Every structure is written in C-alpha cells, then in structure tokens.
Amino acid sequence: MTDRADSPKPVFPTAIEVDDFRANLAAVRARIDAAATRAGRDPGEVQLLPVSKTVPEERIVNAVAAGCRTLGENKVQEAKRKHDALAHLDVDWSVIGHLQTNKAKDVAAFASEFQALDSLRIAEALDRRLQAAGRGIDVYVQVNTSSEDSKYGLTPAELPDLLRQLPAYSSLRVRGLMTLAVFSDDAERVRPCFQLLRSLRDRIRDEDPDLIGDGGLSMGMSGDYELAIEEGSTCVRVGQAIFGARATPDSVYWPS
Ligand SMILES: *Cc1c(COP(=O)(O)O)cnc(C)c1O
C-alpha cells in the first residue's frame, strides 16, 4: 500500500460542469482505445464503467448529461441513496464493493449489476431476494489476485468450486471475473495480477465454458487501466480520471 504514496500521484482535476465530464470521458475513452489497439484488440470489447463513489448527486447529474449510462458505486448505502435521488435519470447502477449478507436485499432492489461476488452465502442471499422480486442481475466473481489480506475476493483455489455452484442461483447471470491489482506504480508488480485473472478465466473456459458466462474480465482503475487492457480487460472501472481526485482514502474501501 505504501508504494503509491512514495511516488507523485497523477493529477485528477475535479469535474463539475457537463463539458468537464465530456472532456474527461473522451480522454479516458481515447486512452482505452489506444491501449486496446496497441494490444491488437478490438476497442469495442472494452466497456468503460465510470465510478461515482463520494461524488455528490448534483455533479453526477452532469456526468449523466455527458453520457454516463451506468455508474459504479462501492458502498451499497451510498449507491441506494443516489439511485433513489436520481431515479428520474436513465442510469443503471453497478455495485462494485464487498457486500454483507444483510445488504443483499438492497442490492437486489435497485442494482443492475454486482461485481464483487465472493461467497456462496452472498449468492444465496441475493438470489432469494431477486427471485422474490422477479428480477435478475449481472454478476462478476471477485478474485484476490494480489494475495494481500486487505483485498476482498476468493483465492484462485476457491474460485472453481464457487463457479460450479452458481448455476443453482438462476437470477444471477455470471458475466466473468473481477479483481483489484496490487496498489503499486510498478507495472512489473501490477501486471501479474491481471495476468493471473486472465489465466484463471482461460482455464475455466477450457474446462467448462458454461460456468463463466461471456468470460468477461473486470480489471483496471484510474491508475492502471491501460495495463489491464493490454492483459485482456473487458471492463475498466474508472473513478478519479473521470470525476476528479477523491479525498477519501482507499483504506475506507479496502480495510487492511
Ligand atoms: C473506487 C473503485 C474503483 C475506481 O478507482 P479510481 O482510482 O477512482 O479509478 C474501481 N474499483 C473499485 C472496486 C472501486 O471501489
């Protein structure tokens, strides 16, 4: 966790007006496309998921006006509050942070996607609520690829067993795997996390393609999304490069 503090952080100016968001979205999208092209991939394979955590509703409205259609939020309470306040807007909500079983009810009520599935208990709790509501949800299974205790997610060894059990929960549409790389500016430490997620996906797809949906890879954030795309990411979750630097320290989201 200390590596990044030692090196200069990229500057992410705060986006306020619709034009600020247009410019940031276009700049990030251009870098996504360039990274994909460099890697010999089709840029159309890479989804940009803007992450609006800590950003107040009055600025989110402008991000939506600039073209954001799906927004990622780490904390369920915050996501639900924003969903309710902005229900008049045409925007879907993706919950990307660790979930306690007692919050499954909330996710089932409003989210269109959940990217941090990491236990059978959560799958069961979500499915029960979703079945009752007659809804389905897209899910990614989160894997801890950095073997840091501060990161949520299954170990690579636990992954196949969970995937084999998920078909029993028919309201959960498995889209692929999600991870957070080690927090470091050193590409030689970050890249292996992304490579590990891809190799896990490839192995499962070879053995039983039905278990992994479209085999998507949600990996890459403001500081490392180009690297993630080079390693096969199909969804980058980008907050600060679109909305501006966050004052809230990351330890709030990934307690160590
Ligand atoms: C906040 C967050 C991101 C985005 O991080 P940025 O540094 O703002 O790009 C991505 N994934 C998860 C799970 C997050 O909580």
From TrEMBL:
Keywords: Pyridoxal phosphate. CDD domains: PLPDE_III_YBL036c_like. It holds the Pfam family Ala_racemase_N. The modification N6-(pyridoxal phosphate)lysine is found at residue 53. Residues 24-246 form the Alanine racemase N-terminal domain. Coiled coil: none annotated. Signal peptide: none annotated. Its cofactor is pyridoxal 5'-phosphate. GO terms for molecular function: pyridoxal phosphate binding. Pyridoxal 5'-phosphate (PLP)-binding protein, which is involved in PLP homeostasis. Belongs to the pyridoxal phosphate-binding protein YggS/PROSC family. NCBIfam families: YggS family pyridoxal phosphate-dependent enzyme (TIGR00044). This is Pyridoxal phosphate homeostasis protein.
